[in-house]
Structure formats: structure tokens, C-alpha cells
Design brief:
alpha+beta, single chain, 2 domains, Nucleotidyltransferase, domain 5, 10 strands, Double Stranded RNA Binding Domain, 5-stranded antiparallel β-sheet
Length: 271
Amino acid sequence: MTITAAADGSALGNPGPTGWAWYVSEDCWSAGGSAHGTNNIGELTAVRELLSQSREAGHEGEDLVILCDSQYVINSVTKWMPGWKKKGWKKKDGKPVLNVELMQAIDREMQGRNVRFEWVKGHAGHDMNEAADERARAAATAYQKGTAPNEGPGFAGAGRTAQGEEKSPTPASLERSLWCESAPPRESLGESPHLIDTRARQMSPEEWTKGVEALRSRDVTIRGDAISREVGPNLHLTDTVLEAAGRNFRIVTLWGGETPRILHQQWSALS
């Protein structure tokens, strides 16, 4: 079976409130976004989420055709990425690859899968592309207004095997259990060969507590005490380990401001 999906991004102001979406049908699509980003970030995030969510739904063994109106995304993944990897994710001029965390996440998600990209002209009446664009723009508009976007139904049965058993959660799926606004990254927390995802955050302690309870409802265990240390004026790092379905995940969180809020968060898989 072949899955054909359109992936698209939107940024109001570019940079500005950002949305992403992938679309298979009216019953199978997903969208999201952040308070600040670029159109390229939205486009890349749409592809990453399509890959991640299709795998979590048990479709990793099926052929996947991604319809994309971004030559930047297509060329990055199909032409430039092998050279970047050989050079340690550096470009020909030695400068770091832009949006490297998203590029690396897409690279990991594509391993062992049969994925093909097809370019389609944007805003030219292509039904699936228009549907993805509409949802990405709606998500960006929601973040502009400070409201929650319509995330869509996703893949039916996401997170379960064909036999109905729960699949092992991943940082991407666990992260979707935490509701929060996004913000521009303000601190580099380093890189890890096991890095799964890096996204900026702005979240109050109350929202963090709500998110942790959401994780616990999915049989996620918080292992040990959260280790926190001061790294600057009104800046703290918190190190937490989660256990889910026999796997351990590490979350490094940067807190900051007179009224503490999450500024940046990095997830990595430990096992």
C-alpha cells in the first residue's frame, strides 16, 4: 500500500506565528505550529510530523509519497543531506546547516523507509496541497490570536499496532502530550547523537504540572528527582528522566525570567 500525503507550512510575517500541516484526506490530517518561526521551519516540521505520526500509527512499512511545494525541503532531503552528514552537518562553506535539528530528525525518521518526494506548485489549485496549506495557515493564525489550533484527527489508530497493542512512545508522541506555546530558542543546550527533537518552549510551572499529569496518564514514570542548577541570572537548567514502555527519555529544560517559564527544552532517547 502507498500513502500519498501533502505537507505544507505557513509563517505570518516570516518570521512570525508559524503553522504546519500534512494532509491525506478529510479523515486523516494533522496540524500544529508555534508562536514564532519561519516558513521553512513550518515546511520541515510538516514533513517531520508526517514521518513521525505515520510511523507511530504503524505505517512505517508502507511506501510514502510526500507532495511538497517547497524546493528547499525537497533539495535538502534528497540532494544536500548526504553531503551535510559527511561534513558533520556543515555546508560546503563550513557554516552550520540551518534548521539542523529538524533536518536530523527527518533523516532519522526516513531510515529504513521507502519515502519519495514529489514537487507540486503551490497555490495552483492542487486539492491536497491546498488542503494542507489551508490547515497550516489556520494553525499559524491560531497562534497569532493566542488560541489553540485544530490539530486534526491524525492517523486512525495512531500509537497502536495492528493487533491493538500500545506501541512504545517516542519523544515526539510524548511531547504532544504537553500543551504549551512555542518561542524562539534562547539558549543552546548542546547536541547528542541520540537527540530526537529540540523545540523552543514558553510554559509556566502550572502548565508544566498539567503536562506532567498528562504524561502520567499515559503510563509514563518520572524517574528520580529532577536535578536543577542555576546557570545565570534568573536562568536554571532542569534535568529529568522519563520511563515509558521500557524506554528511558531525558529532558533538559531551560527555565528563565522573573516569573519562571520554560524557554527551551531538549529531548533525547537514553534507551
